[in-house]
Amino acid sequence: MAPPRSWSADAAAGARCGCCARDLPRSSVHELGATPGVFICRRCALWALARIGRR
User: Fold this and answer.
1) For residues 12 and 55, what is the distance between their CA atoms, to the nearest angstrom?
2) pLDDT tens per residue, range 1-32
3) pTM of the model
């Protein structure tokens, strides 16, 4: 299966978290659905989830 069009050659090898700006392997980040090409790492995703839960 071909990768989605929003992937670049760099994204297949690794990606930068849009929150903390760490360069991580592609398996450690998740692309945000509403903003193609923007990734978030697991640590930042858990932080955001905790912030939403406190409202």
Assistant:
1) 35
2) 445 544 455 545 789 999 999 999 999 999 98
3) 0.65
